[in-house]
TrEMBL record:
It comes from Jeotgalicoccus halotolerans. This is AAA domain-containing protein. It comes from the Bacteria.
Length: 187
């Protein structure tokens, strides 16, 4: 079973790249907004939105690990490296996917802020993520989180056997996806 965790700051390309990688490996994609966008229209953006989203995600993950015939999953999310609770979340994911038959791949995407701001308003992103359609709010969220949190790792900070960090600032979705596909196939 392949578990591919794709993480990085907002608008770096996690979902779009994850879709291409998912197609290559016949894996479903659970991008972070699937659950969030199912909840926020009913209760707004608050701690309960994120708590309920995590409950749904964990339920999906637990179901997948119980099904030995399941091929795996691609999951995308933002990891704030300056927040202990995000490190704890990663440890929880690692505990869930801890069977010997599970291959966990950690793929970190990076891009400069200017490029992420540009990508934040692409038609495809707005189509797939309803909560990003309020472009002014989304822009503020992106820039504020870039100032408040460290959303990419330091060199050698992540000590996973199957870990790839890819700067996608000047790469197309196809180029980025192909690099990840080749790396997963080699590992």
């Amino acid at each position: 079973m392949k578990i591919i965790l794709i993480f990085g700051p907002q608008a770096v390309g996690k979902m779009t790249i994850g879709e291409k990688v998912g197609t290559a490996f016949n894996l479903p994609l659970l991008h972070n907004h699937v659950t969030l966008d199912a909840i926020w229209p009913y209760i707004g953006w608050n701690k309960d939105t994120f708590r309920l989203s995590d409950q749904i995600r964990m339920g999906i993950f637990e179901h997948i690990v119980e099904d030995d015939s399941h091929p795996g999953i691609i999951f995308t999310f933002v990891w704030a490296f300056d927040m202990q609770e995000d490190w704890d979340y990663i440890n929880t994911l690692k505990k869930i996917f801890n069977k010997e038959s599970h291959d966990i791949y950690f793929v970190e995407l990076a891009a400069d802020l200017e490029e992420r701001i540009r990508r934040n308003t692409t038609e495809y992103r707005l189509e797939k993520k309803p909560s990003k359609r309020n472009v002014e709010f989304s822009h503020a969220e992106l820039t504020n989180s870039a100032e408040k949190h460290r959303l990419n790792s330091y060199d050698n900070e992540i000590q996973e056997d199957k870990y790839l960090k890819l700067d996608v600032t000047h790469l197309t979705v196809e180029e980025s996806s192909q690099k990840i596909i080749e790396w997963v196939n080699e590992n």
